[in-house]
Amino acid sequence: MKIYNVLVPTLLVLLMAGCGNNSEEKKDSFLLEIKNPRKTYTTEDALNVSLINKKNIETDSVVYFLNKDRIDISGNTISLSGKKLGEKTLSAKIYSDGEEFEASKNITILSSIKPKLYTYKILETYPHDIKAYTQGLEFENDTLYESTGQYKESSLRKTDYKTGEVLQKVALADTYFAEGLTILNNKIYQLTWRENTGFIYNLKTMEQTGTFVYGNSREGWGLCHDAEKNIYKSDGTDRIWTLNSNTLAEKDYIEIFTNTSKINSVNELEWVDGKIYANVYQQGSIAIIDPSNGAVEGVIDLTDLKDKVTQHPELDVLNGIAYNGEPNILYITGKNWDKLFKIEIILK
User: Fold this and answer.
1) Is the pTM of this model over 0.85?
2) Which tens digit of pLDDT belongs to each residue from 79-91?
3) Separation in Å, CA 51 to CA 30, 40, 72, 191, 290
4) Assigned CATH topology for domain 116-347
5) In terms of CB atoms within 10 Å, which end of the chain has fewer, N or C?
């Protein structure tokens, strides 16, 4: 009995050690190399890759992936055309006699285009509640809906944008910090910051009808939607997530990059003619983003717009973008701004 008690733990230890060694051996069996590697690539590049079989294992097939997306290879060449931007893992999965091996490399894909630069012209100025800590702004049938933040002060508002009058207001519980909003299918969707909770309201009555939770996204920042009823969500990082409009589940994401660098702190969102317009937090600028791959195609410089509102101790950054179907026209405000601006976007 005593011999049995000694042998069993010993055999288990040996078995576990064997499994661990086998795992390490599998990990080190293949090496993925990129010819003439670079720190960054663009979507105009093609990678010349080679797979080094260090232990001469007979292989059945090899499949390549960029993150979780399967990609094609022609000979030894992988084209990056049409690929999403960002920090990616290029991996090869090797299949051999029922076993699976993997080799990988990390790469960064930048935009292949330099963003166009835009300025603005003020067309109209309207009054805006100076106590509204604006987090989200969106038109529906010429009525402007607004989400305002801060703990114990957060709200959802229906407003007359021309007069600044608040037509209807729903206060959130003190424990919630409201963020962005969007309107789709006669529903208003509103985010909260760190509470991992979104609210759903009836558009007509503004009564809360449901809630939803976030998935892998870090926090709730901005919302918008496209004509195909996809909802887009920012979380304060360089990512914009695509949500299923029926379940609000996160389906995928894009990473926001220019031709030189990553754009962090993506905040308020607005869908404008097939592009995502994104306010960059603490920056008086709006990035114009290709929703298919995350490329920044343009930047609107609004840095001095904050100087044109009443200056006071609670004044904060630009953070409200609304589009009402007028070409090259946006409606802009900010946190505790006493003005809403109708501006024309002009190429520099």
Assistant:
1) yes
2) 999 999 999 999 9
3) 7, 20, 15, 45, 33
4) Neuraminidase (2.120.10)
5) N
